[in-house]
Write a structure and sequence with these properties.
With 670 residues, the protein is an alpha/beta fold. The chain folds into four domains: 4-163 and 230-394, Glycosidases (TIM Barrel, Alpha-Beta Barrel); 167-219, no CATH class; 403-604, Class I glutamine amidotransferase (GATase) domain (Rossmann fold), CATH 3.40.50; 614-668, Golgi alpha-mannosidase II (Immunoglobulin-like, Sandwich), CATH 2.60.40. Strands 5-4-3-2-1-9-8-7-6 form a nine-stranded parallel sheet. The protein has a seven-stranded mixed sheet with strand order 11-10-12-13-20-19-18, with helices on both faces. Helix 6 (125-142) packs parallel to helix 9 (218-246), helix 11 crosses helix 15 and helix 15 (427-440) crosses helix 18 (590-604). The longest helix has 29 residues, at 218-246. The radius of gyration is 26 Å and the shape is globular. The protein binds alpha-D-galactopyranose (GLA). Alpha-D-galactopyranose binds at residues 155-156, 279, 281, 313, 319, 351, 361, 364.
């Protein structure tokens, strides 16, 4: 069956291109200019209605479709398809006045006020009723509108309101816990409530983990995270079910946030969409923002199960929500967009079409900036539209990672709970270190959950698996036994899914596959380092590793500089079944980690296609094989590849010339 995104691409005549269109902010004359300029820029898809609730339903029960009717007709008349959003991310002021109990409450008991967006409790029945009503009305109104090509459910579930601690949430949490545990004994055991006299004798004694005197119960916290993500997912399912019933045949998506959103488990939401779409924004202060971009694109692909996905939002230049909002360099917008495309996006969208002149996001860049069409941004936006149109043939092709990088939201939640051996092991930091090493070596990786089918991958890396289900540990063991090559980072395998430590020595569920035992964790002080015997310094963490079948690849130096585990193994390799399993019992420097990944890739037989500094990703499909080359260096580079250059690429007998800072796409020949 044709994938829903591929079907959408066919309808659009190529790669989706556009952004959030918020016409509520503008007059009719501006709308007419908008559609003209959209055509000029090659825009074929816009997201409409994300924040339109107070316009389409100005009063309880009263709908006013005039604006949306006119805008949808206008867009359709100009050949621009609509990704129609349910407006449920921004309840109108009248809703809050009618239902003050639906306002979210913080862990310290403060009830938040109206005045922004997502000001609702995810478990509020009043919110659910109001949201279902407006979604129903919207779906009925536009089910047959010829412009509507996609439904956009809500906006960034949980971005601002995922964790609510009100009494309604407390009651919903208790119901969720009864479903999960059935008996209080099971809950008491899972949460370890016999410590600190926390044993519950009645379900009604259980509250959300609100602010308290000292450490909160970790089991309660972890389950509150799960419950909160599920509460949002319940709302997602409700909206999706209405849309599918009332407007069948139109695919449904929601803009997920990848690593920008810790609180909503992306792997749970993705299967509840017909096609996966994501938002990504660069962190201006991060000099390696392009690596974070690649990581998130690979995560989007992982969430999509390898299928093409849609980049629903990114920025043409600066955002407005960081301390200093740095503008993109000339050419960066193109590089960013084509990198998403290289990694499997079949649509490139922005927040937003026309830059606001009022409201909270007027200092956020847009496709059409305050300066108008006589601007660098507009010229780059129009040029990109033309290039995407010339790249239509890549739609539907897929990227297959050589390496799987295991990424997991519940593990992220658990690793960063209170009272751990060290607060310096931050999940995203560790994941980014490992990903950066793979990225530098041009090893394409899919980010997948630990329970995923790992058979397509020559190597699997797990930067951290603090929380690991027994069956996921068995999945890794089976993968290695059958010939796979695995590398696991420190402080892994320790806890079960309830954050209960497995006794008998660390790394718990991974002792056998890794062929070692650890009797004590030895975290390093801030600023302290441990010398490794390759002469590099490691940070934050050390372990006393006792080999039980593994051999040491690297050791902590056998001197006082070697830190608390001096002389002991720091990196190990274990031959297990037909494969191998490495353990990294510290946080090595970038060069050491890169070397480790290089060795792993060599053993797994994975060969990068381009030199370091030129990001290379291949998309393949029945129509051919396309190599994307993104040059991050200050010099032009020739990459040996045979094929035809798309866009204006020069491909000669010696290969493709990739200009400094440029991107080249080559349709490869045998
Ligand atoms: C998010 C939201 C958008 C907008 C952008 C700004 O992605 O979905 O509505 O606020 O951030 O970067």
């Amino acid at each position: 069956m044709t994938h829903p995104l591929t079907a959408l691409n066919q309808r659009l005549g190529g790669i989706g291109y556009g952004g959030d269109y918020n016409p509520e902010q503008w007059s009719r004359e501006v709308w007419r200019e908008d559609v003209r300029l959209m055509r000029e820029a090659g825009v074929n898809l816009v997201t409409v209605g994300v924040f339109s609730w107070s316009r389409v339903q100005p009063r309880p029960g009263a709908y006013d479709w005039e604006l949306l009717d006119e805008v949808l007709d206008l867009l359709h008349a100009h050949g621009i398809a609509v990704d129609l959003a349910t407006p449920t991310a921004a309840p109108p002021p009248w809703f809050t006045k009618l239902h003050p109990d639906a306002l979210p409450v913080t862990a310290s008991g403060t009830r938040l006020a109206h005045g922004s967006r997502q000001v609702f409790c995810p478990s509020s029945p009043a919110y659910a009723e109001a949201a279902d009503a407006v979604v129903t009305a919207l779906a009925k109104r536009y089910a047959d509108h010829p412009a509507v090509a996609l439904w956009h459910v809500h906006n960034e579930w949980g971005n601002h309101n995922a964790l609510c601690y009100c009494d309604t949430s407390a009651a919903a949490f208790r119901t969720w816990l009864r479903d999960r545990y059935t008996t209080l004994d099971a809950l008491n055991s899972a949460w370890g409530t016999d410590f600190w006299s926390q044993r519950y004798g009645d379900w009604d004694e259980i509250d959300p983990p609100r602010d308290t005197t000292a450490f909160r119960n970790p089991g309660q916290e972890l389950d509150y995270r799960r419950f909160s993500s599920d509460a949002l997912l319940t709302r997602h399912h409700a909206e999706t079910a209405l849309l599918r019933r009332l407007a069948p045949g139109i695919p449904v998506t929601t803009n997920l946030m990848g690593t920008l959103e810790k609180k909503a488990d992306g792997y749970a939401f993705a299967p509840a969409c017909d096609l996966v779409s994501v938002d990504h924004y660069l962190t201006a202060a991060d000099p390696d923002g392009h690596i974070d971009l690649a990581l998130n694109a690979d995560l989007a692909r992982g969430m999509a199960g390898g299928a093409p996905w849609l980049l629903m939002e990114h920025s043409t230049s600066a955002v407005n929500w960081q301390p200093v909002n740095v503008a993109k360099h000339p050419g960066e917008l193109r590089r960013n967009s084509l990198t998403h495309l290289a990694r499997g996006a079949d649509g490139i969208m922005f927040f937003q079409w026309r830059q606001s002149t009022a409201g909270a996001e007027k200092w956020h860049s847009a496709m059409l900036p305050h300066a108008g069409t006589d601007s660098r941004i507009w010229r780059e936006v129009s040029a990109l539209g033309a290039e995407l149109s010339a790249l239509s043939e890549v739609t539907g092709t897929r990227v297959q990672g050589d390496v799987a990088l295991l990424f997991d939201w519940p593990n992220w939640w658990a690793l960063e709970l209170q009272a751990r051996p060290s607060d310096r092991l931050r999940y995203l930091d560790v994941v980014r270190d490992w990903y950066a090493a793979l990225w530098a070596l041009n090893l394409t990786c899919d980010l997948v959950p630990p329970g995923a089918d790992l058979t397509p991958y020559r190597a699997v890396v797990a930067p951290n698996l603090y929380l690991l289900a027994d069956q996921d540990a068995a999945n890794l063991d089976g993968y290695v036994r059958q010939g796979g090559h695995l590398a696991v980072g420190c402080f892994s395998g320790v806890a079960d899914t309830q954050d209960r430590v497995r006794p008998g020595g660390y790394p718990g569920a991974l002792r056998d596959v890794l062929g070692l035992r650890v009797d004590e964790y030895l975290p390093l002080r801030p600023g302290q380092s441990a010398l490794l015997d390759d002469g590099t310094l490691a940070h934050d963490w050390a372990e006393r590793v006792e080999p039980r079948g593994c051999s040491a690849v690297l050791r902590f130096a056998d001197t006082p500089d070697g830190g608390p585990a001096a002389g002991g193994p720091a990196v190990t390799r274990h031959a297990h079944g037909r494969g191998s399993a490495r353990y990294v019992a510290t946080r090595p420097s970038a060069p050491t980690l890169r070397e480790l990944m290089r060795t792993l890739a060599d053993e797994a037989g994975v060969r990068p296609v381009a030199p370091e500094g030129v990001e290379a990703v291949r998309r393949t499909g029945p129509q051919g094989s396309y190599l994307f080359l993104v040059n991050h260096t200050a010099d032009d580079v020739t990459v040996p590849v045979r094929g035809t250059g798309l866009l204006d690429a020069k491909v000669t007998d010696t290969g493709a010339l990739v200009p400094a800072g440029g991107v080249v796409v080559v349709r490869e020949h045998e």
